[in-house]
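Why do we care about 3D structure at all? Because function follows from shape, and shape follows, mostly, from sequence. That is the central idea of this module. The next example makes it concrete: a single protein chain, its amino acid sequence, and then its structure expressed as tokens.
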Amino acid sequence: MGVGRAEQLGKVPPEFLEGVVLQNLGAKRKSVLVGPGQGLDNAVISLGGKKVLLVTSDPLSVIPSIGLRDSAWLSVHLLASDLATSGVSPQFAMLDVNLPPEMELPSAAIYLRAIGDECKRLGIAIVGGHTGRYPGSGYTVVGGGMMFSVAERGAYVTPAMAKSGDSVLITKGAAIGATAILANSFPETVGTKAGAALLRKAKSRLRDCSTVKDATAAASVGLREGVSSMHDATEGGVLGGAFELSSACGLPVIVNLESIHVPDEAIVVCETFGLDPLTTTSEGTLIITCKPGAVEELGAALAKEKIDNYEVGYRAQYSSRFSGSISAYYNVYDKLRSLEAGPPLYLGNGLDGRTYGVEAEAAWQVVRMWRLSAGYTFLRLILDVEPTSTDTQQAKQEGDSPRHQAYIRSSLDLPHALALDASVRFVDELPNQQISATTVCDARLAWKPVKSAEVAVVGQGLFDSRHPEFGKPSARREIGRSIYGKVSCLF
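And the structure:
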């Protein structure tokens, strides 16, 4: 057992979930319509007739740096957000509160009153639970809770209901939760990097760490016929949420990274702490799949509640052997870094920019042993110098990105534990780098005598002896053709 894996905190690894948690679920009952699984937020239990019970659970927390009342608000909304992804408003709650001994009863009273007040505001009745202070309990997790609702059969959605051809949208953007918690926990650190205005905005994101309003607005478009599924992005961020959604519905979710909005304050906070905004915790971001014809109505419903939303993809599985995806994006940026004339030269924010493009991918299982995949990306980057800026160079960076990229890849399983992979990729010219368009071919022949070992011969850049990929002529190094052997062992 690896030490790093044993010490992993947060959600358990997918293999542990599949191999241990989901293999030990007690007795089987026919009334369980939807049980636990990767990416599934709520259980669904038949109550007989046309009624079902929707149930979810989550930890309760007290985060000292944000205070008792905000901790209570966050605990309620993390539970309520999970249940709301069903399209049904939370109705009942049971809470198991195990407080640390150092929390005095007056402080506990503030926390519990705040929980009660927020549940009342959301229309949630607390119908039972347990409350105590115990040695060994500590911050930040101070217990757990359940929320549940009664609904009509057919009047709810789950992440497993996402369908081929659905559009994929997210609300608010990425890294919402991490931005809010870190800005409130380390205001001086964030303020030094971000400045006072962005710090205030980052701290205010705490009340965006809920998808209750998002899910309620989305449900108003119509469940199943309009919105087919909802899932909130939490510990694994937007990309983790997309992976969980894919696991639940059984369809590939290929996300165009450029289309995922990252708010300015989230960019600064993540840079400060060395985090990837697409994979860090993002409570408050809701991933929604809907019929393409419902996108406009869904966007209007979210906008009415002043919730930003962004379309990030399209799901298609035309048959068991062929799948594809296509996504489009348009981003607007302002106050980008510029290099201003002095003397001396100094960094400013005199550039504005826009990006738009399309990304498409397809996969074809030709036969059981042979798979083909292909993809194409179009990117248009436009940088404009503001009238007050003296920068004459930075706008040329729009020529540092290829406008067209494409690839085709073949994966072939051969007899005797052999595998042959080959790929051809095209990258368009980089005018600012004086680099012409290139086409590169790579190939790999591998032999896997046992599951834990592989011997491979790899060839890269087989079409030409060498080619440049980035950098001005005076400073760059060219990539040469290479053929090498590789031995891999897994422990």
